Amino acid sequence: MTPGVERNRVYRFRVERVYKGIDSKTVEVVVNPDNLTDCQAEYRMGEQYIMFAGRWTDSGTLRAGECSGSRLAKFNAEDVSFLDKFAQGRSETSVSGRVLQWMDSFSRPDAERDAPVPGATVTLDDGTQKQNRVTGGGGEFRFQPIAPGRYTLSASAERYGTLPRPYQVEVASRGCVETFPVLPAHTRVSGILRMPDDAPASKKRVEVLRKNNSGQWYSTSQFWKNTDANGRFEFTDLPAGEYLLGYEIWHDTPSQYSPYPTQYFPSRSRRDQATVLHLSPQQSVADLTLKLGPPDTPRAIRVEVVWPDGSAPTEHLLQVFSGDDLMQNIGASFRGAVVKHNSVAELTGYEERTYSFHARYWVDDLGGPVPHDEQRIATSKVVQLDPGKGSAVVRLVLSNRMLASEEHQ
């Protein structure tokens, strides 16, 4: 489908249960994620979801973007149970949620990566009576059963910040409201980044990684800062927890845009050698020094992409990757405007690094009427370029043809 906006991905769902809003006999719906930015919702094939959606024009298509609250059913059994009771007229009016140290503004909190506030006191006030709950280990709380109506919800915890203002919630009879009060930890991490010759490293990106609830390191948009003219950096209001700090550490490998190799505090090249920073609420860690290693040596890399017969694809978009990193887009086409190219990527690489090159060519015009997942693409096998001196030439052959939806199956 092309619901009004070209290249907008939509999803088709088989309806197993209707709770509210559409005909109970509906067996299939089409869902539009409703956002063409990086925040567009993506749904996994074959998974079961609780879908919260709104109508999108009069087409019968439903809108369910990143902020809609839709979620995987297997991780939210309590929600499924509530909705089952709601459909049967047996649900109890409730207000629930989790108290967190921070929350991404674009979507529902990810329970795997969120930073809960255990032991917080949550108060629900209807103007005449107050009810209190103490959050569990995951910051969770629930008021149930309660009378329908309007409430003021507040939260507090020792050593954490306060809410800017109480939350106003209104809950219907037999309905539920889910909310996520945020109590910041008021932490601070600061220091200086230095060049290999000890000069301040100005206008460079310093990153942190936080350990999630499964013990894995993860990053988010708030986990990086650029140094100032004197090489100074400062992180404020990071959630309490365990952290790694360094330069080019998010992917544990340097990006193509920097000649300097990955470096962890205190100036270690490997993640398993890095010092783990333990941050508690209101803790300040200052005067850290991180020193960059010697820059890698630039080398010219020429990547040539051809069909099996040796001819070159020259019209539609050609993408060259190293591993998961997009190295270069070559040419483009949109709304029928074709830009010719020679199917060659001229890259600046580095002698000390290993590259795993592969290519994707869009056989169909990205600006055409064919839905994104049904467009034809051609891909190459991976060709590894090992560390070495001087320039290099890599040849990629587009030997595999498929639909875009089949590439990662």
Compute the CA-based radius of gyration.
Answer: 26 Å
> What ranges have pLDDT less than 50 throughout 5 or more consecutive residues?
1-7
Strand content: 35-45%
Number of helices: 1
Q: CATH topology of the largest domain, which one?
A: Immunoglobulin-like
How many domains, in number, for the residues?
4
Write the layout of secondary structure elements.
Layout: E1 11-14, E2 28-32, E3 49-50, E4 54-55, E5 62-63, E6 71-72, H1 77-87, E7 94-98, E8 121-125, E9 130-134, E10 140-143, E11 149-156, E12 167-171, E13 176-179, E14 188-194, E15 205-211, E16 217-218, E17 224-226, E18 232-236, E19 241-247, E20 263-264, E21 277-279, E22 284-291, E23 298-306, E24 318-322, E25 325-330, E26 333-334, E27 337-338, E28 344-350, E29 355-362, E30 376-380, E31 383-385, E32 392-403
Parallel strand pairs: 2-5, 7-13, 14-22, 23-32
Antiparallel strand pairs: 1-2, 3-6, 4-5, 7-10, 8-9, 8-11, 11-12, 14-18, 15-16, 15-17, 15-19, 19-20, 19-21, 23-28, 24-25, 24-29, 26-27, 29-30, 29-31, 30-32
Structure description:
It contains one helix and 32 strands. The chain starts with 10 loop residues before the first strand and ends in a 6-residue tail after the last strand. The strands form eight sheets. Strands 23, 24, 25, 28, 29, 30, 31 and 32 form an eight-stranded mixed β-sheet that branches. Strands 15, 16, 17, 19, 20 and 21 form a six-stranded antiparallel β-sheet that branches. It is mainly beta.
